[in-house]
Amino acid sequence: MERTGDEAGLTPEASWRTIQATMEDARSSMYVAGTATILLLWGVIVSLGYLAEFALDTVASDLREDSPWVSAPLWAILVIAGMAGSAIIGSRAGKRQASGDAVRSAGIRVFFFWLAVAVAAFLIPAAAGLWSADADGVDIARAAIGIVALGHVLFGIMSRPLIAAVGVGIGAAFYVPSYLAGDAALAIAAAATLLVVAVAYASIRKSGVL
User: Fold this and answer.
1) Is 67 helix (H, G, I), strand (E, B) or coil?
2) Among 99, 81, 95, 102, which Cα is nearest to 38's?
3) Cα Dmax for the chain
4) Contact predicate 93/204, CB 8 Å
5) What per-residue confidence (pLDDT) applies to 105?
6) Which residue of 38, 63, 174, 201 has the fewest C-beta atoms within 10 A of its own C-beta?
7) Contacts (Cβ under 8 Å, ≥6 apart) of 70
8) Distance CA 198, CA 169 (A)
9) Which of 167, 160, 158 has its CA nearest to residue 197?
10) Residue 12 class from Cβ within 10 Å (0-12 exposed, 13-18 middle, 19+ buried)?
11) Global pTM?
12) How far is C-alpha 44 from the chain's CA centre?
């Protein structure tokens, strides 16, 4: 005799909740496709930016004095490279999970979210007058990194808590050395940021949730 859903211990309501949970998990996975590799990419990019700023303040201080605006194109190049790399990684990862309009729509939304974060990290310091010739590069970085860290936290709240934790780690990796490490702050921040994203990358790969 065939057993009904209730006799088997799975009611129609429970079955529907299971289906919804499975669909929600699949939808969430589309929005975080390739996240582990993207986080690693941005960790490297941000660390390169820190090291470049450190070099400008130490071994290339003459260039900094002659061209105080040099940080703007430097970070612009890094951000553009990061966005292009993220788009490629996310697109390929999404296509491995599924295909069709849903994946394409998710990829576009994620791209525009991070595009908004990147633009805000540039425009908000500019609106505050931090891109002037007399501005301190550290103040610009403090504002920009705060926006980037907040972007990770907000994205993580809506998708995966681990991404929010990475945002907190990225912020701490920069702010703690910037207030406590003096002239070596940017070099230490570069190493700390790489450590944060390396730990996140390993955790994500081990758990297999992204």
Assistant:
1) coil
2) 81
3) 87
4) no
5) 72
6) 63
7) 56, 63, 64
8) 11
9) 167
10) exposed
11) 0.72
12) 11
Structure-token pair, residue 204: 């994500």
What residue type is 43 in one-letter code? Answer: G
Token reading at 184: 């070596």
Contact 165, 38 (CB under 8 A): no
Tens place of pLDDT per residue across the chain (210 aa): 445 544 455 566 655 555 554 444 444 555 566 777 788 888 888 888 888 888 888 887 777 677 767 777 887 788 888 878 877 877 777 666 655 666 667 667 777 888 888 888 888 888 887 777 666 667 777 888 888 889 889 888 887 888 889 889 999 999 999 889 888 888 999 999 999 988 988 887 776 655
| Alpha-carbon torsion (129, 135, 139, 143), positive or negative | positive
Instruction: Supply φ then ψ for residue 160, to 5 degrees.
Output: -135, 125
Angle at 46 between CA 137 and CA 207, to 5 degrees: 150
Size of the chain, expressed as the number of residues it contains: 210
